[in-house]
Predict the structure.
Amino acid sequence: SQQGEEDPQALSIQEGENATMNCSYKTSINNLQWYRQNSGRGLVHLILIRSNEREKHSGRLRVTLDTSKKSSSLLITASRAADTASYFCATDGGGFKTIFGAGTRLFVKA
Amino acid sequence: GAVVSQHPSRVICKSGTSVKIECRSLDFQATTMFWYRQFPKKSLMLMATSNEGSKATYEQGVEKDKFLINHASLTLSTLTVTSAHPEDSSFYICSARDLERGGELFFGEGSRLTVL
């Protein structure tokens, strides 16, 4: 079964604002990854955070991980219209599999 | 960087025919590849794990006779949708891990299957 629930399911913001997406998961993990998907396209890897890390930055992206709460957040600062996409968190499940959450659809208005 | 190539990107077929989708790792070897299915505005559902040189491991509820997976080499896995029906219409995405790059998962661009 899928694990990883993102919230919100959909988010609409103005260009320049920050966007925060959250992800919760159910089992222990080795790492958690965030991916982006433009409509009808494949996934692009954004950032990986390991279970022993609490925060990671990459450009305008900031990811946090709280293993005690089994949750992660993705913050996109100074959003742009080009950031409009769906964002998924994914966790390493058992047997070397990656399990995806339901995703957050982000819409950034110019 | 590492690239996973998926082909075809779009395919339309008639009910009852079979369709093959290829997934290639272009600059790394992948002993394991993964096949996902994605319904509109939904997340990715893992269908099966493709293992080079051995049988694929299917997730619960996925018909292995319907979705045939062959991982004949370290750079190629194929998914064949057999006797396709309209309900098989979906977006199929493959991925492969590059163990030399810390196990990062790279995805193909996906294949949109439409069964008439």
